[in-house]
Amino acid sequence: MRLELLGASGADLPEADLKRDIGAIVARSTPAGGVQVELGPADGPAHLRLTLSAAEALRLAATLRAIADGRDQEIVLTEP
User: Fold this and answer.
1) pLDDT tens digits, 4-18
2) For residues 3 and 26, what is the distance between their CA atoms, to the nearest angstrom?
3) Chain centroid to CA 66: how far?
4) What are the φ and ψ backbone dihedral angles of 71, each rounded to 5 degrees?
């Protein structure tokens, strides 16, 4: 798995800061009932933390399943 930073100017950041290999994903519940997902190397600190409401997590899971089952593209609208 690979994480790529989009929208950043390649002249501003070195390649190593734009693309990161992901060796582990840690998902945990939050006190508010949502889900927190951290992506990073298997042997180091996370590069990205994504915090979702429970509803967003369920929509994202359904969307990923649809893509894995053959759909080309899905859009998930998130809460602000």
Assistant:
1) 877 655 566 666 667
2) 15
3) 17
4) -70, 150
